[in-house]
Amino acid sequence: MTAANVYESERRAVLDAARAMHRAGLVAVSSGNVSARVGPPGADLLAITTAGKDYAAMGLGEVVAVDFDGEPVEGEGLPSTEMLLHTAVYRARPDVRAVMHTHSVYASALAVAGEPLPPLIDEMVVGIGGGIAVSAYAFPGTEELGAAVVEALGERNAALIRNHGLVGVGATLAEALRVCEMAERIAHIYAAAKSFGAPAPLPPDAVETETALFRMRREAGGK
Ligand SMILES: [Zn+2]
């Protein structure tokens, strides 16, 4: 048996973020997943959506708290099949407290094309930390996929997952959602810009200034 409802408010926050991700059209059916660290710093616990949930009928029962090895801490049900992706990011990035994985259409299209997003829009560099790289391909649900995504993320807040989708991270669930929405919108803009001609990346000095702002925000906890 697991302890009763110690992490209920954190699980509810993950549920709300998953519903918001679905409402924003970033996932369909049961795809995608969301998590947040729970407990005191260094506890190595997360609240994460369960495998095979249905967003339309999703409740608190579809978010469980587990440790970084997937052992249940609170709630019934199996954690997301992409749990290893989430724990790989938390292990590599102490600044990250929330991870969101989507299959949004334009981001996934770029991931299929193997095409990274250059730094195109000022807010992208401030909010995401620069362009968005594409990870190496790895089979869903594996440790290799987690490692490939960590490498593609670097210090930034988003990465495209080759032939698969997008991951967005942040100091809060709200920030991870903002990153995923922004990445999808910029992927859409990039696709539209390509139909008009060659999209021009931002000037390097603007990218430098905005990257410094991104780092300052990250040190302030994503605010
Ligand atoms: Zn996926």
Structural overview:
By secondary structure, the chain is of the alpha+beta class. It has one domain (8-219): L-fuculose-1-phosphate Aldolase (3-Layer(aba) Sandwich). Helix content is 42%, strand content 15%. It has 7 helices and 7 strands; from the N terminus they run αββββαβαααββαα. It has a 7-stranded antiparallel β-sheet with strand order 4-3-2-1-5-7-6, sandwiched between helices. Helix 1 packs parallel to helix 6 (173-196), helix 3 packs across helix 6 and helix 4 packs parallel to helix 7 (204-219). The longest helix is centred in the C-terminal third of the chain and has 24 residues, at 173-196. The model has no long low-confidence stretch (mean pLDDT 94). Residues 31, 82, 101, 103, 140, 164-165 line the site of zinc ion (ZN). Zinc ion is lined by residues 31, 82, 101, 103, 140, 164-165.
